[in-house]
Amino acid sequence: MSVENHAPVRYIERTREYYAAQGFSPYTWAQHDDTPFTALTKPLAESTLALITTAAVYERTHDDPRYVASHPIDDAPDTLFANDLSWDKKATHMDDRESFFPVEILTALVGEGRLEALADRFHCAPTEYSQRRTMESDAPLILERCREDNVDVALLVPI
Prior knowledge:
Blueprint (H helix, E strand, L loop, with lengths): L10 H11 L26 E6 L15 E4 L30 H9 L5 E2 L2 E4 L6 H18 L4 E5 L2
Parallel strand pairs: 1-3, 1-4, 1-5
Antiparallel strand pairs: 2-4
């Protein structure tokens, strides 16, 4: 599949227009002014990294329930799925797994000593339109699983 060059998609503007056309109040983007930047407590070369993606390990439909999924990093599937999500399918595709799930480059960085290790599991973060569910349920569950895996730093790569 070739990707044609064209102007960037104006997601924020399109989202506002979509909500207005549906008769909803304007979409409120998540903002966390009270969340401070946290510096790493040790160098990356001594850190375990968890990979988090918004893709799924199975082909979902639009009405499938969304939940946090965790999967062994050593058994990561060759294909991840996100066709049920809204993204510019004319400008990009799911054929290059490394572009949204860079496990091979991260493994190489471990081999080079630039990262200590990858976490035993990667996590699939559900894409919800509910900020409340994300903040109260999904994010704390991913954090809990990262702590179980002794993760020092997480990398979120959304599709």
